[in-house]
Amino acid sequence: MSAGTDSAGASGGAASELDERRPGDRPARKKRTVATRVLLSYALVTAAFLVADGWAVTALRTAAREAVLMRSGYLPLALTVRDVVGAQDVWNTQLNHVTTAKNPADQRAWFDIALRGGRPQAFVALRAAIVAAFSSDPALSTVSAELSGEATDIERFLDADRELVARLFDALNGSDAERAEQIREQLVTRGHQGKKRLSQLEQRVQRLVDSLISVAQSRERWAMRLLGALTAFTAIVGIVMAAYARRVLEPLARVTLRAKAVAGGDLTPHPVVATNDEIGELAQTFEAMVQAIARANADLLAAERLATIGKMAAHVTHEIRNPLSSLALNVELLEEEIEDDAEARALIRAIKNEIERLTALSERYLSVGRRKPPRLEKEDVGQICRDALDFMRKDLEQHRIQVVLEIDDSLPPVSVDEGQIRQALYNLLRNAREAMPDGGAIRLVARAQGERGVEIVVEDEGAGIDEEKRARLFEPFFTTKAHGTGLGLVITREVVEAHGGTIRAEPRTPKGTRFVVFLPATPPSPATAASEARH
User: Fold this and answer.
1) Residue 401 in contact with residue 433, Cβ under 8 Å?
2) Is residue 488 within 8 Å of residue 431, measured between CB atoms?
3) Do 379 and 415 meet the contact criterion of CB atoms below 8 Å apart?
4) Are 414 and 521 in contact (CB under 8 A)?
5) CA 461 → CA 13, 403, 419, 433, 511, distances in Å?
6) Residues 19-51 pLDDT 10s
7) Distance CA 95, CA 101 (A)
8) pTM of this prediction?
């Protein structure tokens, strides 16, 4: 309670607060497994690699297709156009000296071969090269048709040379030199016109091919840059995912270190870094296990201390109670013999008071060492509180203590041992009174906690207890009073826990201390209650 609290230690209160903070009490969230998170991280790396690899394959296939097109389309087209232009140059050269040739028959044979085979085959090859160069790209089908049509128009234009060539050689055979020269001039003029149109076609084809090559080169450079970016992106994703996987698995290393520390005997509470996966659940479960071990060790230590108290109580019973009884009897006989001596009677009363104090102290030790399991019956906790307060009211009034009693009208019946609960209330009220040596007010509250049970609150207006001492409430033999035994709150906690309840101490605003006892509506089984009572 406050500075006059009978005993200290926070096993009950701490256990209650720990239970309230258990992970299971938090709203459940969808758990992400470590395997799933690691798998997803590496799936992302794989996806990034596949994207980069797929783009690389696409870029290589495009480059290979364009290389094939260059070799089997653009280059043959350029060579074919150049051959046609070259053949027209040869035609024009032959026309320059056809009229001065010594053997016109040989010249006529050459022109006949050119007109019947060489020129038509050249234009057929030209149109075939145009189709081969541009048919692979649907977007260039219009260009292919235009170039093919232009080649056909030039062929038709040059095909008219057949009649002029025939008339030329007829004039040469007839020795009509002037007429032959006129026809030659016409053929030369047409030849230059055909050469000009073929040259224009060649330039157009060359510009188009250069443009397509430039586009292909630009696309290749862009593809290489994008491939480099995708490669860098894949590397970055790999590094990030490796760091992410390491961060996901890092708590496992901390759990391992924590396990080694626990194996070395470190049972002090450690904060748990919450992660919504199996490792986080493992860390929380492991830390809860460590705290449970620490509580079990503390309970074992307390049980050993109480066992020692039991042995001491038996020894006190054997060695002290009987002599005390004899002393009390002899003091009473002596008091009857000296009725007329007031001073002697005062000394006798002082001796009797000390004998009674020692008897009460031995009884206190005996009550700890030989506590029986509670005999549970349905009781009105509110009425138990009223009876306990009525029993202690005169003592409280003598110490200038006022009591504020607040009891709910509809408290649910609770299965309790009335005598043990009453004794626990006596201890709490006595501690509250001792916490206020100059008087004050005690507030006693009994309120329902839904259908779960009943909560009893005892609070005082004393000086209060600092956190360090409050943490040791309920430890055997720990007391803040000058002449306390450190057993009152130990007994109170045992009684409450034997009923399946909890007790905690907390500061009161603006000053003082508050004890909160919870008694469940559903009592523990007899075996459990007996086990709790033995501890």
Assistant:
1) yes
2) yes
3) yes
4) yes
5) 20, 11, 27, 10, 6
6) 444 444 444 455 667 667 677 777 777 887 787
7) 10
8) 0.42
